[in-house]
# Entry
Amino acid sequence: MKKIVLVVSVLLAVYSCKKAEGAKQENTTEAVSSETPKSNNKIVTLSGGITEIVSALGHEKEIVGTDVTSTYPESLKTTAKNLGHVRSITIEPIMAVNPTLILASDKDINPELMGKIKSSGIKAEVFKQEYSVEGTKKLIEQVAKAIGNTDYQKLNDKIDADLKQVQPLAKKPKVLFIYARGNMLMVSGTKTPMDALITLAGGQNAVTEFEDFKPLTPEAVVKANPDVLFFFSSGLEGAGGNEGALKMPGVSQTNAGKNKKIIAMDGGLVSGFGPRVGEAAVGLNKLLIENTK
Amino acid sequence: MKTQSKLYFYLTISTILLVIIAVWSLNTGVYNFNGASPYKILWEVIKGNENVSLSDKYVIWDVRAARIIMAILIGSMLAVSGTGLQGLFKNPLATGDLIGLTSGATLLAAIAIVLGGYFKQYLPEVIQFSLVGISAFIGAFLSMMLVYRISTSGGKTNVVMMLLTGVAITAIGFSITGFLIYISKDEQLRDLTFWNLGSLAAATWTKNIVLGIVLIISYVILIPKGKALNAMMLGEKDAQHLGINVERLKKQIIVIVALMVGTSVGFSGTIGFVGLIVPYILRLLFKSNYAFILPLSAVCGSVLLLTADTFSRSIVEPSELPIGILTALMGGPIFIAILIKFKKSL
# Structure
């Protein structure tokens, strides 16, 4: 009985702290928002790439809520509510920011939430996202239409201009993307944003046997024998930096491990496949050139 | 008569408590009704006022109210199924999640979701939910038969066997469900967190209607069985002499518990320990008088789960904590307490 009382009191304490925090946060968010929005839309974007497109089209001020992958532009941190991970978002927090439009990607929205959004009566669009330059352009066009903006050609032109700066590599390096979250190590197969970006940047994915992400196994790493290991910056940091990466099972036996070729880029930039896809490809291309000399 | 009025007194008290918690829960959440009180909005919705904004109506009726009712229904059924099982096995450790019923239900529900995905969209919504519900019931029922067959002989249950069978079923269920989740890439299968820690976020009125029907059918049969279960405590032979059809009672409990656990798991995943905590607390108050703890666990289960769910969706706003974390946090210590208390008799 005492234990129950203890547990309940701890929960109550946590709960009341949270409440107080919440109250504080609300006060700070209202103080921001200097420019006036372009339209009366209040948009919730549930995917990093879509968030970037809406912002690049000049509608950043209309975004009232985003998911955890929407890390760019950084100014959104203060103007839009972070609703958490798209897999665990529930309907009420979305309703709480009073959106008039919800934009999501078919890649990561869960069907139960989709059902709830449909029955809530709020206008929602779920876009089919393909990880390719064409796919991005199509997505930009669709998102622009959804928010009532016809001036999207300049974004596509910028992507083309960026991609022109990608320099071909004499020998296509084999790149292994490792997704490190805590002690879980996953490697990227085909049909992922990393796979597409590696190809755009003039490299080749070291793994072609499977689609999507699969847990890393030492033997598979040795067999794939990548020339370069590729991480999200945050993931590499969490794994203990370059030192940690070299200690990962199997890595020491590969070309990348022997030559200590480890690169990292911002996760949002790599996986967004939004307006900055050209920039991302150029950035990765530069890193590959530096690391294959 | 005296005991009867005492029972009604306690039932009334706990029902009042449940109503108070429901009122608190209705007011808890991140959505703001433009300064209006949620109670007023709910009242307008019930009256059928057309002027309530669609968003307000949706949040209060289809999100909060639906979820509160689902917590009440599932909490009640989980607690009663625990109490019923403990009467059947004559042991305070028998609960749906410990003896593997929930795992069996999860496994078949998961299979139904993966295979049902191919033809589900052509079925009406009620049937869709029933498909998962029926599969979960079959899973729970098969697990129940297995546990009962393995652990009970001559009317005596070997507790160690009962719990170990539960461990085995849970292990098998976990591995196969994990495998299904691993191979089903297109989110047709809700992820492992849902199946292992449960969630009431997907509550809808359609689901509540199905749950409500299951609850009514189950309670009409099970709740009046308190005295019979008391007689069972004396031993099956003595109960037989008192004119109780023991075999029939056992069969009823097995089918109804499987039905309740199955449907609950199909809709909300595995929410553990409710069937352990509630009867335990009631036993502290009323000893093992099933005429009391059976009906009371129906109300107290709702109290427990609604409280846990309201915390789970408000403690880490705007996201939510899987509810199973909270129920396990409460249930773990109680499980240990029971073990210590019955150390000699296990």
Remarks:
- Residues 54-89 of chain B form the longest helix (36 residues).
- Chain B touches chain A at residues 29-32, 54-55, 58-59, 62-64, 185, 187-188, 190-191, 193, 201-202, 204, 284, 311, 313-320, 326, 329-330, 333-334, 337 (CB under 8 Å).
